[in-house]
Amino acid sequence: MIRLFAGVAALALPAAAMAQQEVEAEGGWCCLISTLKYPEAIVVTAGGSLGLPNGDAVQKTTFINDLDPGLGTRVENRLRDEAGIVQFRRSDGRSAHPTSQGVTLRGLGGNASSRALVTLDGVPQADPFGGWVAWSAYDAVRLGGIVVTRGGGSGADGPGALAGTIGLHSEMTGGAEASLAYGSRESWDASASAGGAIGSGQVAIDGRYSRGNGFVPVAKGQRGSADRAAPYEQGGLGLRLRFDAGDNSRVEASVRGFADRRDRGVDFTRSKVDGVDASLRFIRDPAGGAQWLALAYVQLRDFETGFASVAADRSSAAPVLFQRVPATGLGARVEYRPAIDGANPLRLGADWRRTTGRTEEDFFFAAGVPQRHRSAGGSSDTVGAFAEWTSGDRDDGFLWTLSGRIDRWWLSGGYRREGNIGGAPISDARFADRQGWEASGRAGVRWSRDDVALRAAVYRGWRLPTLNELYRPFRVGAEVTMANEALKPERLWGGEVGIDWASDATSLSATLFANRLTDAIANVTLAPNLNQRQNLDAIDSKGVEVSAAQGIGPLRLRATYAYTDADVDASGAAAILDGRRPAQIAKHGGSVSLRSNAVGPLGGFATLRYVGAQNEDDLGLLRLDDALTLDAGLSWRLADGISVEARGENLFDELVPAAISSSGIVERATPRTLWIGARLSF
Question: In DSSP terms, which residues pair with 279 in a beta bridge?
Fold first, then answer.
């Protein structure tokens, strides 16, 4: 019997099997969980799910378990250590614009909307209106692990998992932990979590607050008197409850809220994001018996931002647009795994998701006063059902899986209105409702013996355009991008083959993949300073992903590398893009990390991260240079439950280009940032 806190935990032990085990947690909480043996780690999950499915073994899966909350660390930057995970901007949630924080995998980029599905305890996390991800919200959640499944097609994940799924799993803690850190540019970071038994269940509360004066985003040598530091202030608070509901059954409820305030480094560019999420689920998972899950959730988002026009000599800035975006996401899901000969090889399920939202925009400023107003928005619904059969055991044997999914989708209530403030309307467009059917699925095999496993999979996935892509035009500087209410869903066909090898303290994994994303949505240049969102014929992406790990006494060395060869297949109005590389996708990326196991009083890590050169725009006229950065940290445990830590980001103070304007102004990502702090645990 394993003894640990209920939730998601990780053990740095070599293994290769999945087995059901009974777990006794602190505070008397018992539940049935899944222990997944993988060449790089064992991950134990019990938070909000029925356990990791065997079928995902046919695709490349990465388990991130060395997550250290607080002391300036950020979830999105930990993901950057995994080659092939690409966020639309290289800057993080302290300085990036919130609408630019989409995430993708395997070179399927060129769009700020996420093409990878991000979930928290099984609940989709993309913004209901725009498809971007509020990464700062998860820094306030105590995470026990992240499971990254590369490649689409898993019917259980649903629409949006084109490039793969990034599953965040919260952790129910026993006891309490708090940290406080001070960093460069008057930055503060405070976090705390506490949990324990309550009746026959558990309660946990997590919180975080961070702020800083920020840095000047514009690269040195290009700044003017209008440029200044870009401060940020962010925080969140969450409450999770679990209660027994009979034998092998439990009820889980969670509610969390977050607030995010940022500035883009010139006047009139402040942004504000407020969010509240709540979910309720019932789980029954007896060992060897029928298992099922029922989940309902709600997402509330309120986003505000301003945009400015900066003079050519960067001596002044003037407002050009103020935007507010209220949006709501609703969803429900059920899954049933019948018992067949003491196992659960069959998964049956259905889900529903609805998003509604609108943008309210003031623009056409004169003497600092807006003269016009635009309102645009609508709603989308998807209802789907899936089935998956997985035969065999991933431990020393042959496994095959086959899944299928069918979805019905609706786009309704789409509109766009513009008018003079206090005057006559200029336009009032109402867009026809649309609906359709989409199918997705996966077939794969895995053969393993002793220390070696071979795997192969083919899959199909799809993504519905976001309300933002369909209905909202936007402007960045002189660049105008028109919306397109006629956009079609994106569809992906893909496949991969791979090999995993693990022996004692050494592991190696390599995967070859090929994807074709048809009707890919991109911002297409129609004329100088004029773009429109359009469906391209396709984006073709192929490449290789490699990871290796080696235990060296109390240390663990890990390296990841991704080579991605992606190009656009385009015709018609977008023919000029044919054969070009998608925007924001680098050909090479990788990292090398050395981490201690923190068994002794001293601990630490060092991560060298490389990102290759990439294009800023669809025509490849603006280039973002490559960058090599180093993050490192040291910790010293003074006594049981008390430690001090020091860490640094971008210790070389490398210029990391995050964006470049049509006039050649370079925006940079985080410069050298140093932190020192203390951590207490009880």
Answer: 254, 297
Residue (of 170, 578, 156) closest to 405 by Cα position = 156
Q: Are strands 642-649 and 291-310 parallel, antiparallel or unpaired?
A: unpaired
Asked if residue 229 is part of any domain, the answer here is: no
d(CA 419, CA 360): 12
Q: What's the mean pLDDT when you consider all of the chain?
A: 88
Instruction: Say whether 214 sits in a helix, a strand or coil.
Output: coil
pLDDT band for position 569 (cuts 50, 70, 90): very high
**Greater pLDDT, 215 or 473:** 215
Q: Percent of the chain, pLDDT > 70?
A: 92
Beta-sheet strand order (sheet of 521-527): 474-476, 479-482, 530-535, 521-527
Q: Are 441 and 428 in contact (CB under 8 A)?
A: no
Q: How far apart are CA 634 and CA 605, in angstroms?
A: 7
Which residues 6+ apart lie within 8 Å of 134 measured at CB? 93, 98, 101, 125, 127, 258, 260, 273, 275, 301
The CATH number of whichever domain residue 265 belongs to comes to 2.40.170.20
3-state secondary structure of 574: helix
pLDDT tens-digit profile of 232-283?
999 999 999 999 988 889 999 999 999 999 999 999 999 999 999 999 999 9
Question: In the prediction, which pLDDT does 547 show?
Answer: 96
Per the structure, how many domains does the chain have?
A: 1
Residue 256 to residue 206: CA distance in whole angstroms? 9
Rounded Cα–Cα distance for residues 483 and 477 (Å): 17
Predicted confidence (pLDDT) per residue in 157-170, tens digit: 888 888 999 999 99
- How far apart (Å, rounded) are the C-alpha atoms in residues 517 and 600? 48
> Tell me, what amino acid is at 674?
L
User: What are the b/e assignments for 429-461, b being 16+ CB within 10 Å?
Assistant: eebeebeeebebbbbbbbbbeebebebbbbbbb
What SS3 class is residue 26?
helix
Convert the pLDDT of each residue in 602-632 to its tens digit: 999 999 999 999 999 888 889 999 999 999 9
Instruction: Give the range of the structural domain holding residue 539, as residue numbers without chain letter.
Output: 2-185+197-220+257-681
Contact 223, 314 (CB under 8 A): yes
* Inter-CA distances, 381 with 331, 412, 437, Å: 10, 8, 12
For residue range 434-466, what is the model confidence (pLDDT) as tens digits? Answer: 999 999 999 999 999 889 999 999 999 999 999
The answer as to whether 226 is a domain residue is no
- Is 244 part of any domain? no
Residue 460 placed within a domain: yes
